[in-house]
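ok so heres the complex, two chains, lmk if somethin looks off
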Amino acid sequence: MLELRLVQGSLLKKVLEAIKDLVNDANFDCSATGFSLQAMDSSHVALVALLLRSEGFEHYRCDRNLSMGMNLGNMAKMLKCAGNDDIITLKADDGSDTVTFMFESPTQDKISDFEMKLMDIDSEHLGIPEAEYHAIVRMPSSEFGRICKDLSSIGDTVVISVTKEGVKFSTRGDIGTANIVCRQNNTVDKPEEATIIEMTEPVSLTFALRYMNSFTKATPLSSIVTLSLSSDLPVVVEYKIAEMGYIRFYLAPKIEE
Amino acid sequence: KLQQKKMTGFFDKR
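and the predicted structre for the whole thing:
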């Protein structure tokens, strides 16, 4: 028996909006520690890892480890029917081939039940070691979203370079080039507006902007985004989910052959 | 020529 009750149902709505265009079908894994997902896009160039810890749910019952295969587009369609202030409860009986999403309005005067068929998805999970990164950039997520959007109107790849001056985002295309430098500025009065750079050594990597723009769909989840970079490793773009966990996007670099 | 790498080239299947 699985019953997960999330008072802040809007978090789950935002998570699906963030991943439904990157990944079509995925397995949600439920265990005592929490509700998680790891999936790659169809080209295996990007990977998303989601964790919602059990403590973040008002009620978390998961009798035994369970993996539920879902079509994320269909799941997003059902979650769109939940109000932003609704409480969302996920329910699944052992051995059943459906999952139920229950939406309760804050005043409990409207209760909705949406039932969706589960799918069999044989997804291979990748082992992702916790790594030491050459550079970690923490910046306003709205700023990062704006940069990716602006640069993608000029070119289709972005070079992200971190030096002691700051982090530089560069692109080039038929009409010309663009360079955006964000300097460290932890003097701002609001912490969520600070740009903080930790660097052990300079790093410069090239990525496809199409995927970066897809990741920024997670912006509504957190006012801060962190970019973790190491030479010749995928970048990790992480949006923390308030007191619950995180959504991490990994993107393989484009490397000079 | 820039070659787009894949995630499976960096992390092993569990």
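quick notes: The first strand of chain A starts at residue 2 and ends at 6. thats all i got rn
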